[in-house]
Amino acid sequence: MYIEKINGPEDVKKLSNNELTSLAAEMRQVLLKRASIHGGHFGPNFGMVEATIALHYVFESPKDKFVFDVSHQTYPHKMLTGRKDAYLYEEHYNDVSGYSNPEESDHDHFVIGHTSTSISLACGLAKGRDVRGESGNVIAIIGDGSLSGGEALEGLDFASELQSNLIIVVNDNDMSIAENHGGLYQNLKLLRETNGQAECNLFKAMGLDYVYVHEGNDIPALIKAFEGVKDSVKPVVVHIRTLKGKGYKLAETHKEEWHWHLPFDIETGEVIADFGGEDYSSVTCDYLMKKMKEDPSVVTITSATPTVMGFTEDKRKEAGRQFVDVGIAEETAVALASGIAKSGGKPVYGVYSTFIQRTYDQLAQDLCVNGNPATILTFSASIYGMNDVTHLGIYDIPMMANIPGLVYLAPTTKEEYLAMLDWSIAQTEHPVAIRVPGGAFVSDGKAVTKDFSKLNKYEITKQGSKVAIIGLGSFYGLGVEAAEALKESTGIEATIINPYYITGLDEAMLEDLKANHDVVITLEDGILDGGFGEKITRFYGASDMKVLNFGIKKEFLDRYDVNDVLKDNHLTVEQIVDDVKKCL
Amino acid sequence: MYIEKINGPEDVKKLSNNELTSLAAEMRQVLLKRASIHGGHFGPNFGMVEATIALHYVFESPKDKFVFDVSHQTYPHKMLTGRKDAYLYEEHYNDVSGYSNPEESDHDHFVIGHTSTSISLACGLAKGRDVRGESGNVIAIIGDGSLSGGEALEGLDFASELQSNLIIVVNDNDMSIAENHGGLYQNLKLLRETNGQAECNLFKAMGLDYVYVHEGNDIPALIKAFEGVKDSVKPVVVHIRTLKGKGYKLAETHKEEWHWHLPFDIETGEVIADFGGEDYSSVTCDYLMKKMKEDPSVVTITSATPTVMGFTEDKRKEAGRQFVDVGIAEETAVALASGIAKSGGKPVYGVYSTFIQRTYDQLAQDLCVNGNPATILTFSASIYGMNDVTHLGIYDIPMMANIPGLVYLAPTTKEEYLAMLDWSIAQTEHPVAIRVPGGAFVSDGKAVTKDFSKLNKYEITKQGSKVAIIGLGSFYGLGVEAAEALKESTGIEATIINPYYITGLDEAMLEDLKANHDVVITLEDGILDGGFGEKITRFYGASDMKVLNFGIKKEFLDRYDVNDVLKDNHLTVEQIVDDVKKCL
Questions:
Q1: Which domain holds residue B188?
Q2: Looking at the structure, do residues A245 and A293 belong to the same domain, yes or no?
Q3: Under an 8 A CB cutoff, do B555 and A583 touch?
């Protein structure tokens, strides 16, 4: 196979057009086999095989610099830049990350996993090149789905200010993860339908030059286009039309389902290990669907990740105008929720913890300063969530819980979660966020009668003495286990507390604990710095109470083993008990 | 005067075209007098007088809802909606805030002070109206300068999804605070020059209908245009050309200087009380100007607020291509800085604390995950900073300092500030932010020899015992005063510590303090929740050390008196000493 002999872009340049086309076919076979065994991003990579080959054929990476947006479409790029073994051989599948990574190769310039950043980052590389008097092309490669994000649109607008070389390749497969949403997609459609000739052109309106390539999966056409813009002395957009999932029929047809995929059977496309059963996505969807039917003013909002709330295509259709996908536009999602709440509607915005990071100012200004009663659900806010460095969900508490006015809740079970959601939608006083638990799905069947409108009232679930254990959200169960182990080891019956509220202290209860407790410990499924536990510790700062905060230290983790991380952070039951015993 | 009889929009509707024009002239006189005595936003309001009159003439506020972007152009709107007295009579000047405010009037729907939010918020109002089966127009009013912000561009893109009534008035005065930057402004220029007829049209490319009004300061022309779009059943942009500062020659000519203005003499335009002298803006500009001349790879970046770093128009010209204004596009500013640093350049991004809130994810992902050595300067991060609820600068520590990988520094004097800046620009290991001190400008002339590359090394500036005072950044001086008062009151010579580093603990020093100290206090010029002091308290949680954290409680403050806030938060010297004594 040609691919076996590709050790870097220089080997790509040696091949003829026919050989390059064969290479593309080989790469697809390799990607298909790996995906079927290993899982990962599928559609984005299958669509980009030819464009990646053409980019490496025309440009001189790493002197010419590629910046891949989201970078989950870099598998072909990695295969051509000295990392083919990680795709060819099963024993090497884990040698590479799923995103661009400068630690792996000089051909990668940034660790990127969030969308819509490539143009602005590439502007930086270009500006740095210019002030340092260097040369070389800078090429941002961005999918159409990522264009709706604020940072991408800012970057498109700013790029023309550079007045020097910058090439923006827009990979237009007419899809985000789900279908695209937003007016600009009408313009991309118009451009595709007019072979790029329509006068009304978003990119030209942003002050940029523009080239269209209708056959974005045809290597000679792409090479011609890239050669035409190479060494351009001003920013230019190359708009290429590609087919998402190209080369695997099921992925071409069911683009959303095959954007990312678990390991599967190549013949049937069926997932090899299906987890199935109830989970927080399915209960969220079931609940909201029922609620929306009862109340036409309930609106469910997603920013291009509808299935995190269980809203597959059929469910979205069923919800009709009460389900809004803003596209990749998290800032607008929060502002929209605030506006809907202001007008008397009942918005629920579901979002991954890692992506709500894109909305600090919208949470603070658009929502909390205004005190509008919107509901936000943060998913995968847990050490048990996604484990790529770019997709960690363990920073949400410091980011969100220190914003005044927000009520941030941490349920420990399905029943608490749904009770909180029910309360939040009904109430009209506060912006509310709910930290959907990570880790195991816990359902104890207990009816929840708590009145959540009495803010910051914790609950003693087991009265004990000497030691009090405050277990927040998904680490409540760990607290219960630690209490049992402590009893076994020392005979001490610890008090166990479910705090429910991340954003405030139950000062009366904490004060009462002083009477017959010497040690308070806090447990949280997130980083310690700026988190929940520190607030408890501050409360006791001037007292004799000993306080231990358990959680994760402030650092960037990458592709970790959960058990290793727990051990490193003294989060095993044994370690917790040992630490407590040292305080007694 | 007509204005004296305007108690609400219904009174505007009674006037003839000629009377409305007279009303506009009166309103300008009133605005001019008030601005000359009270100060405030000038240019934005002077340009919007006619449009505001026409809006209230045509639409039925508050059933029809206006959402003003930034909302510092709402003075005319306030004058026409029952709040004229706050503009007519000096004793009532402080009755209103400088921004829209639902607590003042039903004609205001949001508290808004940051740019680029109006379209997305208005989309929310429109969506809420639709699902609730209500009627009425929703009108977002946004200036051209705000269009470059990511949230505004997201909103423009999303709006067409509504498929119902939404009117976006683009107030185009060809200016941001300073001149506009970005490619889209070429398109606005083209539209102005073609009377709105150019085929290439940003708004149409976003899927929106479009109307152009060349005479945006002419009431009949505006009335006609607004009547044309009233009750539109789909989103439409009304692009109006206005003159910033219209009606006051100096403001028309020197638009940047007159965007916001201190009280001034109407005849000469001269500021009545000029503070003058050295401040952190001027020393920043002087330093960076020198540095840029020495090193062509140093790049100063602003997001449309160049003068916070002292870069007035002449200085910007002098800096040439080493000064970059990205426009109102904070996200792109951070990504740009990361890219420049990655390519070997030396970027310095200066930004108000309240606006860096718009970049949490860019700080975390684009910058810190990548570990690129960019420098960020946060200004007005202090209780002594801007005091409108929308412009508070006291939340930056929880937001920024809990992001892994960032080195956030807190200088206490000019000399430390410049030494940190010098180190940050030279080093190549870390993303660095510097919290420019608020409050009094302190310069002690002392040479700073500290090696900042040895991270998290605090300094004992005065060795004492029993009590240790850790005074962060601009509250270091308060710590010194408290130490003196404590000595006077108790005879105790406290240890005084300058921590320098917000983002990490000097664990060795903190450990050593245990030997001969019983109480540690922390002082920080920001909110306590998620802040610096809590990390110190956590360190001592399991020990016998008593720790008191002094800072500001988590809440939204608005137009406050600093001394009141300090008192409310136990931040006077007397209160601090009293609290310490209770612990001894």
A1: 3-257
A2: no
A3: no
